[in-house]
Structure formats: C-alpha cells, structure tokens
Amino acid sequence: GAGVSQSPRYKVAKRGQDVALRCDPISGHVSLFWYQQALGQGPEFLTYFQNEAQLDKSGLPSDRFFAERPEGSVSTLKIQRTQQEDSAVYLCASSSPGTKNTEAFFGQGTRLTVV
Amino acid sequence: QQQVKQSPQSLIVQKGGISIINCAYENTAFDYFPWYQQFPGKGPALLIAIRPDVSEKKEGRFTISFNKSAKQFSLHIMDSQPGDSATYFCAAREANTDKLIFGTGTRLQVFP
User: I need a surface site. Which of A14, A29, B49, B51 has the fewest CB within 10 A?
Assistant: First the structure.
C-alpha cells in the first residue's frame, strides 16, 4: 500500500480481555516503531524493530504488552488482560534507515478503549 | 522524565498572523529534530525537520529555528491559515536508537 496501514481503527475491549493490533508498514521499510498516544498527549515510544529483530522494547509499560514482527514486515502489538489505563491511540510508524530521507511515516492509529 | 518540553499548550492566531511554537530538549544525543502536524483522527505527519548542524530551515510558510547551545528550537508558521488548525508536535530523535521523543503538543487554532 501507499502508506502505513493499521487495523482495527477502533477497538473496545472489556477489562481483562486480550487484544491484538496490527500494523502493515510501507513496503520495504526496515524499521518499525510502536507508540502510545494518550488523549491530549504526545506519542510515547513503546518498541522498535529492525526487520524481524526487536531491538528496543524499553517503552513497553508492563509484561502484559508484547510485540512481534516475525517475517520483518507486518507487526502485531498484543496487550493481555487489558486495563483501563491501556486506553489510548496506538500508533505504528515505519522508516527506511540508512537512506537520506529519514522520515518516519505514521499510520492513522488504533484507538483502544477499555471499559 | 520529559526530555522534550513544548510550549504553549494552545495557541490562537488570526488568519495571516505568525504562529510560534517553542521546544527545548535536555539530551545532547539527539541527531534530528522533526515537527509533526496531527489532525483529529489522523496519525502525525512530518511537516519539516532540521539537523543540529543547521541554524535555520525554511520550507514555504514553515521555518525551524535551531539554537544548539541553548538546546532550543522553534517552529514559525507565517501567514497562518485556517487549514493550519491542528496539533503540532516537536520531536527529537535519539542518535543511537532512532526512536523519537515527542513534546506534549500545541493545539493551534487559526481564525479567519
């Protein structure tokens, strides 16, 4: 596709439910990032992949959060036993490091509401 | 800890006026400073970016001023238009990790 695609756009989960959020990065982009954006705040880094390798997961708020990118393209962010404080927009971004253009392209995000 | 501080939180400007948003950073290991524009329900989109070896960059109505010694940078929007009404985020990229550290955002409203 032309841009970063995320699905679903909206997700309502009951507290304690597991959720999986999908990200399709721009074709050929090596780097993939997940960010969490709380209402009225700036995005906060969660985790980073280069191809299939998860190089940095320092931003994941708890061990309930897990991300994978098994084939170096599509990535999934999984949240187990969701809590109300997990409610936020989850943004995925991709970029192609090592090129002159280092822009990170963001998807539209998945808005997660935990009730 | 918040490594990138952004102000003001909100800004109201009349059409044709100049919008100015300021950011300051604490970490010297940043190598790239982008500004993102975000409309409601959309992801952030890159507006303009600067590297720390440059003091100013202009693209159309948008200018970044960068002061390395003061660890400050700012976005100027000249001839502001109602279509510029959005939330603007400054960010700084960590040189060794490529991750972006965002400011808290400025909600800009431009009235006709």
Answer: A14
